[in-house]
Amino acid sequence: FNTSFNLIFLLLLKYVFLHMRIFCVQELWNQGAGLLAACFIAIVPGYISRSVAGSFDNEGIAIFALQFTYYLWVKSVKTGSVFWTMCCCLSYFYMVSAWGGYVFIINLIPLHVFVLLLMQRYSKRVYIAYSTFYIVGLILSMQIPFVGFQPIRTSEHMAAAGVFALLQAYAFLQYLRDRLTKQEFQTLFFLGVSLAAGAVFLSVIYLTYTGYIAPWSGRFYSLWDTGYAKIHIPIIASVSEHQPTTWVSFFFDLHILVCTFPAGLWFCIKNINDERVFVALYAISAVYFAGVMVRLMLTLTPVVFVCMLSAIAFSNVFEHYLGDDMKRENPPVEDSSDEDDKRNPGNLYDKAGKVRKHVTEQEKTEEGLGPNIKSIVTMLMLMLLMMFAVHCTWVTSNAYSSPSVVLASYNHDGTRNILDDFREAYFWLRQNTDEHHARVMSWWDYGYQIAGMANRTTLVDNNTWNNSHIALVGKAMSSNETAAYKIMRSLDVDYVLIIFGGVIGYSGDDINKFLWMVRIAEGEHPKDIRESDYFTSQGEFRVDKAGSPTLLNCLMYKMSYYRFGEMQLDFRTPPGFDRTRNAEIGNKDIKFKHLEEAFTSEHWLVRIYKVKAPDNRETLDHKPRVTNIFPKQKYLSKKVVTILFIEFKKKLKLN
After folding, report:
1. Are strands 416-419 and 407-410 parallel, antiparallel or unpaired?
2. CA angle 188, 193, 195 (to 5 degrees)
3. DSSP designation for 1
4. Which of 237, 327, 447, 543 has the fewest CB atoms in 10 Å of its CB?
5. CA distance to 44, 308, 312, 517, per residue, from 37 (Å)
6. Contact status, residue 242 vs residue 229, Cβ threshold 8 Å
7. pLDDT in tens, 369-404
């Protein structure tokens, strides 16, 4: 009963989003497509990955705001109502307060208006909708503290301002067209557009040069130049969600929808209007951005694009192949001419004097497609939907239903093994370290988890706003112990936490992330850290005896493989065999001078080291005792002394 009640409660919470989905697709197409879209969004893995129970990320609530804003914008353009536009502004305000991805909205809506102007589909409805949205939405977004004056001082928002100015100029020209002759209007149009374009262009250049308008951030540059982040801002490229999306990821998150949404897009373009222009633009931009970054798959999956367009495609197929059956159930009423035709089948002309069709031709026209073809196509569509539901259920249960801090593996007999090393380590930190003064140094991937689950202060976290601080942590990890100790003492570090997967074969450990630490550190400290020092002469990154001496002596390597050389995991492998790298480590005699092992989890997945306090007295280096303080004296042997003594006695006798 409790399980059923919880399921019903969660469905009721999600009902708002599903019902809004029906309305949104209904505005674009019809009710049947809206119902299918609601079914798709309820189970599609691309959205489940961000909205699963226990997910506290911003995207969980931001996608609803994104979808609702688009729905209200379509409603505003369709009606030209100020009321719907104000509702759209309020939804945009909620989106700005929830997620930084609001920039996608403030660029896509102006693009929609700009394309409508190019297609000569300008109307008062578009003018009222966008003018109200830009002014009110701009003022509301500036009330969010972390946004502030960015809408008027950053390059990401300049496209919206430019389209707003262009729309006002276009509306003014439309006003003058009704009051001037054609020759006067063409002259004024040429001069006005040339002067306005030149003034806007020079103003943007001047404001950007003076620093009033900030340039694009690194993440936006990386959207257009995929190699920019790796060269200039490695911390952006180091995030796994910022890597390009593979085709496997598309199928894994969308399944059959990958193949059906182009058909839905074609139906929209075939029956184009102002609202469907927005869908087409969203399709082009979402596909591109989802291919550039894995993280932006979220913008592609649930919103206007894949689920809606796939629903439109399925809806049209079902209407086409099942429409004849619906007509057959409700046949048209026969008139008197049809009865006469049945009574006089030999008459070649009807009452209107036109040549009557043959009976077989009439039956063929009425029947349309054969019943076998309709049945086969309908069954194929239903089978695809069933396979889609099975795939979504499997992906949700196996890939998106486990928290990231609890790992699961399967034994040879199929039984599941739970690896709870993360929570074990965080519990140890919470119980055995000072709550108010302990500072933990780790890579930024684990900052939020340490702060939330262990309740301890970290140097860097997932916010990644301070690139120089993250680079300093990367420098400490990639330096030798003595140099790293100086950095850790300057940062008042008490504990160092690392992730090591060599025992269980976990590929997401810090050794596999180590090169990103080196690259980020090299960007801020190029004189001290060089990436080439961590590769062999053949350009290989190896952890065995052939590895670089700089790598084998760095702090990250020593903390990962401390006491690991004494462990033999299998009788078929030597001691110190790393299962993740499939190699025997090259440095097994690891000793620490400034660190000591504090905790190692059950499967060696999390290792914590304590930073030793400096000695009260500085230890002096032992030097060899100096024995030549006084000038050297000549010593005689016993034989020489005896000879001298005999000669001395002879001299005495002679005297």
Report:
1. antiparallel
2. 95
3. -
4. 327
5. 10, 5, 8, 43
6. yes
7. 567 788 888 899 999 999 999 999 998 888 887 777
Structure tokens at 191: 């001069």
What is the reported pTM? Answer: 0.73
Asked if 475 and 528 touch (Cβ cutoff 8 Å), the reply is yes
Chain-centre distance for alpha carbon 266: 28
Say if CB 218 and CB 211 are below 8 A apart: no
Residues 342, 335: Cα–Cα separation, whole Å:
11
Q: Is 576 left (phi over 0), alpha (psi -120 to 50) or beta?
A: left
DSSP state of 450: I
User: How far is the C-alpha of 413 from the C-alpha of 416, rounded, in Å?
Assistant: 9
Domain regions of the chain by residue span: 418-611
C-beta of residue 301 within 8 angstroms of C-beta of residue 295: no
SS3 category, 14: helix
Name the DSSP letter for residue 366. H
Distance from C-alpha of 261 to C-alpha of 280, rounded to nearest angstrom? 11
510-561, pLDDT tens digit by residue?
Answer: 999 999 999 999 988 999 999 999 999 999 999 999 999 999 999 999 999 9
Looking at domain 418-611, which of 3.30.1540.20, 3.40.50.12610, 3.90.1030.10, 3.50.30.10 is its CATH number? 3.40.50.12610
- Type and span of the H or E element at 408: strand 407-410
pLDDT, one tens digit per residue, over 164-187 is 988 988 888 888 887 878 888 788
Q: How far apart are CA 160 and CA 73, in angstroms?
A: 15
